[in-house]
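call fold(seq) -> tokens
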Amino acid sequence: MKKIINTTLSLFTALLFIGCAATVEGEQKSFDKVKAEIQGLSGIFNRYTPIIEAQITNLDSKWANAMNIDGEEAKIEALEGVNDNAKLGSIKPLYDLRRCLNKVEADIQYIRKRKSNEVEIATLKDTDLASDKLQEVENLVAGTPIENIEDAPMEINGFIMQLNTANKYVSIAAKQIKEKIAAEKRAKAKVKADARKKENSSYSTNKGSSKSSSEPVQKMVKCKYCKSSYPEGSSKCKSCGAKM
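ret:
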């Protein structure tokens, strides 16, 4: 029996490994997906289209070289390397900028959806300033393509610093409100849990005292057929119908 179990586990492990093993076809799908994602950045960052195009050209070249490698395992390993590093290099700052833009926009929307008594006037003013800076940067990065791509990293980092500075107090306020709401929810949950616990404890105490003070202890007898228990004096078993 033990041998059969071990054999079954070995087969299962082998099948799992085969199912998870990388293939040329699988890496090709991953490459097409990441390539399309990078190309899609042009819809947000038209100014950095030259960087995006250069990255795509570089990836295509690396992919072609990897595909020409002899040996399946070596080829797959090289293809995995291309996919793993596809979002690095000159394209990475664009992903950093996109995350920053999304963060600022999310914080602004969160603050503006809060009730008036949850947000200070100063925070609302900071939110308007952050919104203006967000709009300014979005317009710039969607503008005319940059002439010298070597200037792009410094420019992108500058935009990220401006956005973070403009959003500093908005982000802090959003975090504080979220923490306050979470704390209030935990407090309410604790109050409800304590109330239920107290109610259950009171019910158990009252039930026990009521039985001991007002109800005489009854002797129980068992049905000789189904063994169900009933108070002494019962004429009929409610479980099987036999006479007691």
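Residues 12-18 have pLDDT under 50 and may be disordered.
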